[in-house]
Amino acid sequence: MNNEIEPGENLDSEQVYNAANGGPAPVTRRSRNRVLLAAAAIVLFAGGAALGTALPDPKESPAYKSLTGEKSTIEIERDAALSSYASLKGKYDTLENGMASRESKVGARETEVGEADAAVKTAEAAVKAREDAVTGAEKAKAARTVGDGTWTVGTDIEPGTYRAAAEVGSTCYWGIYRSGSNGNDIIENDIPGGGRPVVTLSAGQDFNSTRCGKWEKQ
Fold first, then answer.
1. Whole-number mean pLDDT of the chain?
2. Is 201 helix (H, G, I), strand (E, B) or coil?
3. What is the chain's Cα-based Rg?
4. Which of 85, 110, 143 corresponds to the end of one domain?
5. Is residue 4 in some structural domain?
6. Residue 1 lies in a domain
7. What's the distance, CA 174 to chain centroid?
8. Range of the domain at 91
9. Amino acid 196: pLDDT
10. pLDDT single digits (tens) 84-116
11. What whole-number distance in Å separates Cα of residue 90 and Cα of residue 127?
12. How confident is the model at residue 24 (pLDDT cuts 50, 70, 90)?
């Protein structure tokens, strides 16, 4: 033990003697302070230990239990929301796939309709061409067809050979006259009485057909 006497310490005679002859160390102010600090530390340690054992468990508090219940509820709601989302996502994917399939079918159908429209237009064009051809043929035939009446060859009808379009009756009469003679200058005439008579007409002539029907140029 350090028996040195601190400066400023006031010791009695016994303490001085002991300090000088190796006796018990005098109780100085420094040693007292050390003892007091040690005692305070022991008291604080003991108090802390006692305080620690005396504090309640926070997990047993109503607030903790309430928060735990809320957490459990939120987790249940979260799981339900995730399940609902997965279900909706599956339905959405199904609808999207169905829409893609329908769009593909619609596209194919539009292609078919376009092809059908093109085919219809082609057919209409062909029909129009045939109609035009028939109409042209009919017009050409009409231009080469002569009915009952008096016609000037080269003006009203074309020169050429004409034949009755059908069997004539017994009352059929035809005559060829010099143009401008008003039927007085007869070149040729006939009452065939049947069959399909044939006449040859030239420019400068008049042709008369009575009850003979149609004549067609050959």
1. 81
2. strand
3. 70
4. 143
5. no
6. no
7. 77
8. 58-143
9. 98
10. 899 999 999 898 888 888 888 888 889 888 888
11. 55
12. low
- Between CA 141 and CA 145, with CA 144 as vertex, the angle to 5 degrees is 85
CB 187 within 8 A of CB 176: yes
Cα–Cα separations (whole angstroms), residue 133 to 118, 127, 140, 164:
22, 10, 10, 24
Structure tokens at 163: 């034949």
Q: How confident is the model at residue 61 (pLDDT cuts 50, 70, 90)?
A: confident
Question: Would you say residue 151 lies in a domain?
Answer: yes
Which residue type, as a one-letter code, is found at position 7?
P
How long, in residues, is the chain?
A: 218
CA torsion angle 152 158 161 165 (round to 10) = -90
User: Would you say the pTM of this structure is higher than 0.70?
Assistant: no
Q: Which residues pair with 176 in a beta bridge?
A: 188, 207
Shared-domain flag, residues 65 and 48: no
> Helix and strand tally (H, E) in the chain?
3, 8
> Dihedral of CA 110/116/120/126: which sign?
positive
Amino acid making up residue 55:
L
Task: Report the candidate in 129, 173, 169 with the shortest Cα–Cα distance to residue 150.
Answer: 173
Q: Which residue has the higher pLDDT, 150 or 127?
A: 150
